[in-house]
Amino acid sequence: METVAKRLYEGMFLVDSAQAAADWEGTLSVVNTILQRADAEVVSMRKWQERKLAYDIDHRSRGTYILCYFKVDGRRISGIEKDVVLSEKVMRALILTTEKRPAEMLESDITGEPIEKPGEATEAAEAPRSPEESTAAEAPEGEVSAAREAPNPVEEPAVPTIEEEPPDTTGDETPSDEEDRAEKDGAVG
Question: Structural domain tally of the chain?
């Protein structure tokens, strides 16, 4: 018997928010059943977010995303995708391989904890700053006052106004109008 190498995959499953709120355990069991049919080993499964959809899917405007990490033979992915299409509870799914993702990113996604970047811990403790304060804080010492006093670089351009009298539409032409027309036509009168 040949040994099957199972790889780690990331799956994002979209389900109806109303159904998920009414029966969360039932919703998770549907996703688990789909994965079990493909002999997948679930590493982690959690609610990612509940959001308004960019467009209606099956007449639904909100959806709940379930983030799942699982190990499965790559040849079984098409079966998982087919089961998602046939499922009435799962609206969409996206399955990606995790081969090229850094290990620390995978670990934080699996555990659900955010990654701290260097210098991020001290910034998180500070209160949010206005754009002027953040610009002043990042400017060199001699340019601090200039950064605070700088006007907004995005200003609407001035629209030139044309102040002309509307043309006379009564049909009466003045002698100057006739002279102007004659000059344009090249005839001198």
Answer: 1
Give the integer Cα–Cα distance in Å for 185 and 74. Answer: 81
Residue 104 lies in a domain: yes
Q: Compute CA distances 87 → 31, 92, 96, 142, 156, whole Å.
A: 9, 10, 20, 63, 52
Render pLDDT for 87-112 as a digit per residue (tens, 0 to 9): 999 999 999 988 888 888 878 777 77
H or E element that contains 160: none
CATH number of the domain residue 100 falls in: 3.30.70.60
Cα–Cα distance measured from residue 96 to residue 14, given in angstroms and rounded to the nearest whole number: 15
Per the CB < 8 A criterion, the answer to whether 13 and 81 are in contact is no
Is 0.70 surpassed by the pTM of this model? no
Q: At what angle do helices 77-86 and 24-37 cross, to 10 degrees?
A: 140
Residue 150 sits at φ, ψ, to 5 deg, of: -65, 135
Which of 3, 79, 71, 96 lies closest to 38, judged by CA?
Answer: 79
Distances (CA, A) of 18 to 11, 21, 23, 38, 63: 21, 5, 9, 27, 8
